Amino acid sequence: MHSTVTPIRGLMLVLAAAAPVQAQEPPLFASNDVVALTIQAPLEQIFSHRDQESEEYPGVVVVDAGTRLDTVDVDIRTRGRSRLDRRICRFPPLRLDFPRSRVAGTLFEEQDKVKLVTHCRDDDRFEQDMLVESLAYRILTVLTDVGFRVRVARITYEDTDGERDPVTRYGFLIEHEEAVAARTGWRYLPVPSVSPEASDPRHLALLEVYQYMIGNTDWSAFAADPGSDECCHNTKPVGSPAGPVFALPYDFDITGLVDAPYARNLYQANLLQLGIRTVRDRRFRGLCSSESLWPQVLGMLRDRRGEIEGLIRGQEGLDPERRDEALEYIGSFYDELEDEPRLLERFREVCIPV
User: Fold this and answer.
1) To 10 degrees, the CA torsion angle through 132, 134, 139, 142?
2) pLDDT band, very low/low/confident/very high, at 23 (cuts 50, 70, 90)
3) DSSP string of 93-146?
4) 64-92 average pLDDT score
5) Could you report the per-residue pLDDT of 287-327, keeping only the tens digit for each?
6) Residue at which a domain ends, from 154, 178, 202
7) What torsion do the CA atoms of 204, 208, 214, 218 make, to the nearest 10 degrees?
8) Mind spelling out the 3-state secondary structure of 295-323?
């Protein structure tokens, strides 16, 4: 049986001895260096499918491995929800499905399904927002191993049908939830909901405060989206069916840190319901039952500030102005943290009773 010990750096570092052996680090996510890729596929045909059951098309990914070029077969399809909408993203997010038998010895060894977040539009603002979104994932990895790892790539897209001109932009690849579960010694749980009592309390408290720091109110660790039979809203559950369960957060475009151009219109009704004006305004969405653990999380965030800000300063491709905006937004959280008693009182005022 699993222990409820949580692998959060600064709180608890080690999984219980009874947990499965953690998997070795896969090559794709073993480094944070930007990797150069070329995707060759019938992009115009792929982009014509904008629904949840979009069709897969064969293509190849060429990896610049420094001393050689590795060519990997891949099936590609569009994915996502709001960013599938043509009015939002003319260049939609993609899913790359790799045949495991063909990736040995390449960057994609051990990978199966990998999500790719693209630049959305051929517009510098959208590309910059995408890079900041990748940082939201990386900030969480400073705090815990139980989260999605990402890898920023400089990608050249070549339409093999010749309908589109080649374009080179930044994007980032996201670890699959089953890979996160295997790496951390747990299981992915495709369940319709998660009971708050089953959630690992320390990881949940971390998630609540982290989401507040980056200005995210668009998430739930317990309930699925309407019409969906798998939990949860912008989080994926991993752990043990008997507990504990850890929520893996994703999709950070509608956050104060990223502040995508379409965020306000897309999320306006939710903003009004929460009593805030814009996604830049923070609103705590944690459970009141986590109260005793918030000071520990705040202490860890205080200790990790230099590392978090260092990630932002060191992100390749991020313009100085956009970098400073991201640092200022994270800095505004730390300004609040200077008066920790008042910040904790704000959490208590709006926390959700169970």
Assistant:
1) -150
2) low
3) -EEEE--GGG-TTSTTTT-SEEEEE--BSSSHHHHHHHHHHHHHHHHHHHHBSS
4) 92
5) 999 999 999 999 999 999 999 999 999 999 999 999 999 99
6) 178
7) 100
8) HHHHHHHHHCHHHHHHHHHCCCCCCHHHH
> Which range marks the domain in which residue 311 is found?
187-350
Q: How far apart are the first and last CA of the chain?
A: 26
Measured from the Cβ of residue 328, the count of other Cβ atoms closer than 10 Å reads 10
Predicted TM-score of the model (pTM) = 0.92
| Cβ contacts of 208 within 8 Å, gap of 6 or more | 284, 285, 286, 287, 290, 294, 297
Q: Which residues of 50-73 are buried (b: 16+ CB within 10 A; e: fewer)?
A: eeeebeebebebbbbeeeeeeebe
CB within 8 A of 6, min separation 6: which ones?
12, 144, 146, 200, 201, 202, 203, 244, 246
Tokens of 143: 């705090």
For the sheet with 235-239, list strands across it. Answer: 187-188, 235-239, 245-249
Residues 144 and 206 in one domain: no
CA pair distance 202, 349, nearest whole angstrom: 20
Regarding whether 200 and 166 lie in a shared domain, the answer is no
Please count the structural domains in the chain. Answer: 2
Q: How far apart are CA 11 and CA 255, in angstroms?
A: 26
pLDDT tens string 136-170: 999 999 999 999 999 999 999 999 999 999 999 99
Same-domain check for residues 204 and 328? yes
